[in-house]
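Aim 2, interim progress. The first record below pairs a target sequence with its structure tokens.
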Amino acid sequence: MTESTFTEEKAYAYVTRDREEVPELLVFEHPDPEGGVQVPKGGIEDGESPREAVVRELKEESGLTELESIRSLETDVWQHHEKPKAYRRHFFHIVAEERRDQWRHTVTGDGEDEGVVYDYFWARPRSISLARDMDDYIGQILK
């Protein structure tokens, strides 16, 4: 697949906090049983940069707004396994100072997940498998 064939752009947030020697990754289990464990992510709106999109999506999907740093990791083109769709994915590593170990957040914004409730928790990055190849660049946040 060439990069010119992607159908949608998305921004993905690998949010970590340093509580121990190994950083913890913010994840949620999607309420749809087929959704699996995911990281905050979402579509990039017209006129929005991937960095702006990841900050907006993180706020809408998790409620987090206090971010210490944002670093771009990778951009790729990913072919959906069940649909004839490809996505240009922009991955970011974001460090947050968050004391809560788990919380529930109702998604805001006007996307397809608006009103859905996500239950967030922290996990060790190598101890969890993320849905839809979202963990492709996890190794880069552990360096």
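The second target in this work package is listed in the same format:
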Amino acid sequence: MKKLASLVTDDLADLRQLLVALLIGILLLVFFVYLSRWIKKIARIRLGKRTEDSLLADFIATSIRFIVLLFGITLILRFLGLTGVVSSILAGAGITAFIIGFALKDIGENFLAGILLAFKRPFKIGDLVEIQGISGKVRALNLRDTQIKTLDGKDVFLPNASIIKSPLINFTIDGYLSYNFMLGLGYGCDYQKALALITQTLNQVPGVLSGKKGPMALVNEIGDSALLIRVSYWVNTYDKKHADHVVRAAAILAVLEALEGANYPLPGRIIELKGTIPGEQNQP
């Protein structure tokens, strides 16, 4: 009877000790979660003062938080005495390296690719890019993926490793983007004056750049019913006051209104129909 009571007492003591250890482990986990967030915030502020590249600063700060959190989890497992048990079981089964390597393959590959992207810097936050046929603006670079906001409002998360392996088009890496559109001038008008009017009109459109990146109107080819003109201009994508699509619409409308106001002919596409009208061939 005394032995049974002693065993029960020992079991309760072990259970109490286990519960205390679990409680301390949970408190330590919560502590390291908040500590990692605080360190990330401080690192982001310090790095933001030393570099203008917010993408690189965010990635380094996130990596620091990940390392702190990983250190905390390792410390908690050591405190609970689980690292040795888990390692012994996996090692005894002979599958430790296989499981860890297989489970962390994609994570490690994307993490290393993220480091390369952060330091190589093929894009910045807000850049308009095209990757694997997906076009949009870069929103964030995370440890595993890159977030892109498409032009129709969708959020796409591309694994960093796939970005490294695929061709990447950055339309706004230097802040400038070129647009163009085609129009037709009727034959017989004063072409040189029409081209000069187009250029002069575009120079007055808000958001269209001037100088070395000023607008141009050049003859593209001779069409069947009109002389085809290619009109091109540049915009500054970092200019938040003039959105690209708004400038594009304003430029096209301004050119059309100017040409129509000066009575320049703008013929549409002429389609010539050949053949007989159904039923006509049966008439006498």
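Strands lie at 128-131, 134-141, 145-150, 155-159, 168-170, 176-185, 216-222, 227-236. This observation will shape the mutagenesis plan for the next reporting period.
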